[in-house]
Amino acid sequence: MGVDAMAAGAALTERHGELQGRPEQFELLGRTWSLLPGVFAPVHTASTELFSTWLPYPVGGAFLEIGSGAGVTAVSAALAGCAHVTAVDIATAAVANTQANARRHGVADRVRVLRSDLFDALDGDQRYDVIYWNSNVIDAPEEFEYLDELQWAFFDRGYAAHSRFLSQGPKLLAPGGRMFLGFNTLGNKERLRVMADGLGLELATYRRRPGAVGAISVELSLLEILPAC
Ligand SMILES: C[S@@+](CC[C@H](N)C(=O)[O-])C[C@H]1O[C@@H](n2cnc3c(N)ncnc32)[C@H](O)[C@@H]1O
Fold it and tell me: Taking the complete model, does pTM exceed 0.85, yes or no?
């Protein structure tokens, strides 16, 4: 029997929002990170660590992370040698968390953190060598109502944000730039594929691995978004 993605999303929202037993800091990728309340918690998922390890960071170049959450990937990009990192999130607590971890790891000078709905707050003239989003993969119905900011980490109503990510992201790539989406099997891959097809794009699996988000077994995949051949 398939997993009910909406029920899984509700369980994940509860788990990531739970304050009891939630650490104020955690260890990942050999570093210690601050964790603020109300932010997607990398301690409850394999995705942050895997995608942060798999991504080909553009050393000396510009990296854009959509939905930076606690900031692990954006800060790792700066520490890996990206000259300019832009990290955006729609959730205010996530913006504060990414800023805190950029300061904690001494890279606040090259990690710009903005509150933004996808690309909205960005200067449209800026170009990026890599654009990445570990997305809110659950395809929520049109009538879904967001009741708190943490639900943005799991649910995308009508897949509107995925549609905009695919249509707007490629326009912000520098020549030779690359675009990645962190995805898992709670997401609606078929709907994503139809959207990509309609835009003349292809979803290529860059890396994938069985894993878990919370207590739910999933396959985690880092998809590269490419022009269709
Ligand atoms: C699955 S979490 C990943 C967080 C972090 N990148 C990580 O891997 O630990 C998805 C993140 O995307 C953010 N997000 C969702 N919709 C967004 C949007 N339209 N614009 C910007 N950020 C968004 C959420 O607030 C959340 O922090």
Answer: yes
